[in-house]
Design brief:
This protein is mainly α and 139 residues long. It is 63% helix and 0% strand. Mean pLDDT is 79; it is low at 126-139. It is globular, with a radius of gyration of 15 Å. The chain contains seven helices and no strands. The chain has one domain.
């Protein structure tokens, strides 16, 4: 069992808040990627497989979502961004569909962090959000 205070050198803000930040990031980028291609991963039929010129669109959108999340974290937590916590959650081995399903479950159960991120992302987002609406992410 990890003693969170000694492990993170601080009191935890919320035990799984970085999980939620990563979940938001991975879901939004995955759903966008699915709008760019009909190709699927050879290992997971629910995972988008973006190649060629569309890969730069995917990377650009991912960076915009990442920048949004990096700006959101300090405002939400009152603490500076903790790269180790982000990395620990971000590099867990879950399928793309796992993140989408978890995001939808959190959203449908009214999770405060996820719902607030959706609201802020929609209100400040000047990027292309139409693809997200077709997946009922922001409804």
């Amino acid at each position: 069992m990890i003693d969170r205070k000694s492990h993170y050198q601080q009191e935890p803000i919320e035990a799984d808040i970085y999980f939620k930040f990563v979940c938001f990031y991975k879901t939004i980028t995955e759903l966008y990627d699915r709008t760019l291609t009909l190709d699927i991963s050879p290992h997971d039929e629910t995972e988008a497989y973006v190649v060629g010129k569309k890969k730069s669109l995917s990377n650009c959108y991912a960076m915009k979502v990442y920048n949004f999340v990096m700006g959101y974290i300090p405002r939400k937590t009152g603490e500076k961004f903790d790269f180790e916590r982000w990395k620990r959650e971000n590099f867990t081995r879950h399928s793309a569909q796992y993140w989408v399903d978890m995001f939808n479950w959190l959203k449908n159960n009214g999770d405060e962090v996820i719902c607030d991120m959706i609201e802020k992302f929609n209100s400040k987002n000047t990027y292309n959000t139409k693809p997200m609406k077709m997946f009922n992410v922001f409804i």
